[in-house]
From TrEMBL, chain A:
The lineage of its organism: Bacteria, Bacillati, Actinomycetota, Actinomycetes, Kitasatosporales. This is Pyridoxal-5'-phosphate-dependent protein subunit beta. SMART domains: RHOD. It comes from the Bacteria. InterPro entries: Cys_Synth/Cystath_Beta-Synth (IPR050214), Rhodanese-like_dom (IPR001763), Rhodanese-like_dom_sf (IPR036873), TrpB-like_PALP (IPR001926), TrpB-like_PALP_sf (IPR036052). Keywords: Pyridoxal phosphate. PROSITE patterns: RHODANESE_3. One of its GO terms (biological process) is alpha-amino acid metabolic process. It comes from Streptomyces diastatochromogenes.
Automatic annotation (TrEMBL), chain B:
InterPro entries: Ala_racemase/Decarboxylase_C, De-COase2_CS, De-COase2_N, Orn/DAP/Arg_de-COase, PLP-binding_barrel, Y4yA-like. It holds the Pfam family Orn_Arg_deC_N. Its cofactor is pyridoxal 5'-phosphate. GO terms for biological process: lysine biosynthetic process via diaminopimelate. It comes from the Bacteria. Residues 45-266 form the Orn/DAP/Arg decarboxylase 2 N-terminal domain. The modification N6-(pyridoxal phosphate)lysine is found at K70. This is Diaminopimelate decarboxylase. The active site is at C412. Keywords: Pyridoxal phosphate. One of its GO terms (molecular function) is diaminopimelate decarboxylase activity.
Length: 442, 488
């Protein structure tokens, strides 16, 4: 297949049947609409292109900046589309909690603005919330912005009304599925697809999924947040159900590991929510039915999100010579030296003084003649073996003498005959009035 | 009653729960001293201080916890705190005099906020550390010290307008502090006045619940301190202000259910939950929710000392992701904090007598009139939604089951509502009952109180536990000697 522009690769995504051995439904064929295969990585490519596309040439002529309230995939697609047309893109958000997405947006050249948090000393009469102020700056005279307004823009829904929905019907041989399950973010995809499916068959049942209120699932809103979305109409859905972050990750793992579908947590939430709803229906069925859910985007951007909630999935083999292996007894028995004795020892010129603090702290003030190896780096060095000759005595220093004791114990265990920890650390050193220096800038 | 009752029950720790359950004492107190009445619990503030101290210890940090006095005028709370090793942050001449009189020595006091000449003079005269808000104030203080031959003044430079690389973290504009981009002239002024001013560190205070914003500011302070050292100054501390927050409600699900129902009420898909359909900042535009919920996040699992703990563990992006606590420690800086509301968590309650319980025409909600003005119980003024605890006078009344009520105040003024929210109570209150509003010590007792219509502002008493029972005295009569077997 040959294209003149990457934007032509948006849409026409595959509809893939989930193996019944995985989902275990006896009477329902379950299909995943693989929106993750869009060129910029998500279902939002469709909406972004449909909303921005017609205005990009004009915006380029007038030097306008593309602006959107987005914490993720829409921003990613718009950043690329803006860049392709020589425009800049700014994403304004208070929800961007995924560090990989942030970094990717910066990499793509986007500007990111995070809105301030809620006031601690609240003034209930101040009604100018940050979003109101945002909208005001957009409409100021002379403002040069192309605001795609994804939560209210009907062209968001339209992208699915003309694309996603008809594609599903076509791939099911001209029939609408009996069930359609989608997560509610901007509500664009669920609203557009549901409308198309109902036109074909008014009996299709539409399940909207929202995030549990106490939880955060990227790309899905809680029910309260959904009510702030202009495109959201509760009448679109036969039921609205909540999914927790743990459920979403479980669903995601099944798709990743059993189905070969590299879905992110939103797709996982859709799969989990679909299965929960369909299992109940399945047992009462006699004839065959079909169901479709949307896989929004890919797993790779959510590794830190998953790691925070499921550290067990990232179990790594234990490494040799780790300070974490030491017992408290070993740490307590670590060779140590007080400030006065350390000063005398250093005066003999014998020990190498290693300062384990960060470079900026070391640069600010340190023991004259010491070497700075920040603890994280030191830990890496020690994994590989002793970084010093056994013939060279070592004095380790950290802020309060805790980390240095740990490393002194570790180096001793590794066979160093004369390593000592500075008792009480640099703080005790300072409090004792011992000299700290800073090197003059070159 | 129009659907399920939507309770918002207060979070009560052991001391405050015990007090709220001491019905006989509470009725005796209001019978003698009138309604409304504030009761403060001095022992609790010492317990809260200890929670902050333990966070300092966990991170090996030294530095002072300064109680933000403005949150409560109480003498009892201040004097109890003077008996600990805490400091106090004063924001007026009167508060400084109060703190000195309560037993705080000047090394335990910082003076912050807008200052007049008298406040500056007394602070400098007593060698209290002055949090300097602007370059003008710095010049004014230097001139004052010279003119009156005062001792060299210790100053903290309050900063604002911190900038980030990469992601721009926006903050509300503040009236206080010197913008970081005008740092150079500020530091030049500090150097010029070195003979009369001793810059002991820098400070910020951001009015936000966002950890990211505060982390950005703290990183900014570390960079400024480095610049101070580069200029040969010897700063030793960062003061990160307060704003650690309080969790007011006991139950997360109640809060979540309530806020969801409130959005439904604003959209008109359920009956109103407020007087006159007030939306607390939310409104409906063409069936879509607009505006922002102007309410304090009343259920906060991470608040107070735990919030400080999280902030300190936050990685500093511009220092290779090292936790902020490690950076403070290894740069040898003291950490100062100024909690107000968080130190006053669970430190008291406000009592108001029920005067009238009226059935409203064509409405299900009862109208309950209290012997108190809305400004005596300023929870609503701070956006805090929380149920009062009903303390019945007569325990023999039949259990009516839950009722919905509107709570109105005693002023001849339509808007004098204790809260605009429809409050659900577990049973119908009767005239003569008390309503105990829990956890009002932080900003909700005297900060807003007026004497409008010749109505009194609430009196204040201090209460403490002695063996199995509660004892009390007038707030002004309390000294740390009182509660340990002294006078009463």
């Amino acid at each position: 297949m040959r294209y003149d522009s990457i934007t032509e690769a948006i849409g026409n995504t595959p509809l893939v049947r989930i193996d019944p051995a995985v989902h275990g439904l006896a009477h329902i064929d379950l299909y995943a609409k693989l929106e993750l295969l869009n060129p910029f990585g998500s279902v939002k490519d469709r909406a972004a292109w449909n909303m921005a596309g017609p205005h990009l040439a004009d915006a380029a002529e007038r030097g306008r900046q593309v602006v959107e309230l987005s914490s993720g995939n829409t921003a990613k697609a718009l950043a690329v589309l803006a860049g392709m047309h020589g425009l800049t893109f700014r994403s304004v958000t208070n929800r961007m909690r995924i560090p990989e997405i942030k970094d990717l947006l910066l990499l793509l050249g986007a500007e990111i603005e995070e809105l301030p948090g809620q006031s601690e000393c609240l003034d209930p009469t101040a009604t100018d919330d940050p979003l109101t102020l945002f909208h005001r700056t957009l409409s100021e005279p002379g403002a040069a912005f192309l605001h795609t307004d994804q939560y209210f823009n009907p062209r968001n829904t339209e992208a699915h009304l003309t694309g996603t929905g008809p594609e599903i019907v076509k791939d099911l041989d001209g029939r609408a599925p009996d069930w359609f399950i989608a997560c509610v973010g901007t509500a664009g995809s669920s609203t557009g697809v549901a409308r198309v499916l109902r036109e074909h068959d008014p009996a299709v049942r539409v399940v909207g999924l929202v995030a549990d209120k106490s939880d955060f699932i990227p790309g899905i809103r809680t029910i309260d947040e959904a009510r702030e979305v202009g495109l959201f109409d509760p009448g679109t859905y036969d039921t609205i159900e909540a999914v927790s972050a743990d459920d979403a990750i479980e669903g995601m793992l099944t798709l990743n590991r059993r189905c070969g579908i590299m879905a992110g947590p939103t797709g996982g939430a859709a799969y989990f929510g679909a299965l929960r709803r369909l299992r109940a229906a399945d047992s009462e069925l006699t004839e065959r039915q079909s169901a479709v859910f949307i896989v929004c985007d890919r797993v790779e951007s959510y590794l830190s999100y998953v790691r925070r909630r499921r550290p067990d999935l990232f179990g790594r083999p234990r490494r040799r010579n780790s300070p974490a292996d030491l017992s408290d007894t070993e740490v307590r028995a670590a060779p140590a030296v007080g400030v006065a004795d350390a000063q005398a020892w250093i005066a003999t010129g014998l020990p190498l003084v290693v300062d384990l603090r960060s470079p900026s702290a070391y640069a600010a003030l340190h023991i004259d003649g010491s070497v700075n190896i920040v603890d994280e780096l030191f830990e890496e060095l020690v994994h590989g073996g002793l970084p010093f000759s056994r013939n060279r005595p070592v004095l380790l220093a950290c802020p309060v003498g805790e980390k240095s004791a740990r490393y002194a114990a570790l180096l001793t265990r590794m066979g160093h005959p004369d390593v000592r920890s500075l008792t009480g650390g640099i703080i005790a050193w300072r409090d004792a009035g011992a000299p700290l220096v800073r090197d003059r800038a070159a | 009653m129009g659907g399920q009752p939507l309770f918002l029950q207060p979070r009560l720790e052991a001391r405050l729960r015990s007090l709220a359950e001491s019905g006989e004492l509470l009725h005796t107190l209001t019978d003698a001293l009138g309604s409304p009445l504030h009761v403060v619990v001095p022992e609790q503030i010492a317990a809260n201080l200890e929670r902050f101290r333990s966070v300092y210890r966990r991170h090996h940090l030294s530095g002072q916890v300064f109680f933000a006095h403005k949150a409560n005028r109480s003498s009892a709370l201040l004097r109890r705190l003077a008996a600990t090793d805490a400091g106090v942050d004063v924001a007026s001449l009167g508060e400084l005099q109060h703190a000195l009189g309560a037993g705080f020595t000047p090394d335990r006091i910082t003076a912050t906020g807008p200052k007049n000449r008298e406040f500056l003079w007394l602070a400098a005269r007593t060698s209290v550390t002055v949090g300097v808000d602007s370059r003008d104030e710095l010049e004014q203080l230097a001139a004052l010290v010279r003119k009156h031959a005062l001792p060299r003044a210790r100053v903290l430079l309050r900063l604002s307008g911190f900038e980030t690389a990469g992601v721009r973290v926006l903050s509300r504009r503040s009236r206080f502090g010197s913008p970081v981009r005008e740092l150079v002239p500020l530091l030049e002024a500090v150097e010029r006045h070195r003979d009369v001013l001793d810059a002991v560190g820098v400070a910020y205070h951001l009015d936000t619940t966002s950890l990211d914003e505060k982390a950005t500011a703290l990183e900014g302070c570390l960079r400024v301190l480095e610049e101070c050292r580069e200029r040969g100054l010897r700063p030793s501390a960062v003061d990160i202000g307060g704003g650690f927050g309080v969790g007011y409600l006991a139950d997360r699900e109640q809060w979540e259910r309530y806020t969801t129902e409130l959005t439904a009420a604003v959209l008109g898909t359920r009956p109103p939950l407020t007087w006159g359909g007030h939306g607390y900042g939310l409104r409906s535009e063409a069936g879509t929710l607009r505006g922002a919920l102007g309410l304090y996040p009343a259920h906060r699992p991470v608040a107070g000392a735990r919030y400080l703990d999280e902030l300190l563990a936050h990685p500093a992006a511009s220092f290779d992701g090292r936790p902020l606590a490690d950076l403070l420690l290894e740069h040898l800086y003291d950490l100062h904090t100024e909690p107000g509301r968080a130190l006053l968590d669970q430190c008291g309650l406000t009592l108001a007598r029920v005067l009238e319980v009226r059935t409203q025409e064509d409405r299900d909600e009862l109208l309950v009139r209290l012997e108190a003005k809305a400004d005596d119980i300023a929870l609503e003024a701070h956006g805090v939604l929380m149920d009062p605890v009903v303390v019945p006078r007569d325990l023999s009344h039949a259990d009516t089951g839950p009722v919905a009520v509107h709570l109105s105040g005693s002023l001849c003024l339509e808007s004098d509502l204790i809260t605009r929210r429809t409050v659900f109570l577990p049973r119908r209150p009767e005239p003569g009952d008390l309503m105990a509003f829990a956890n009002t010590a932080g900003y909700c007792m005297d900060f807003h109180a007026t004497r409008a219509q010749h109505q009194p502002a609430a009196r204040k008493v201090a209460a403490w536990q002695d063996g199995g029972s509660w004892r009390w005295c007038l707030d002004d009569q309390y000294w740390p000697t009182t509660s340990v077997g002294g006078a009463q």
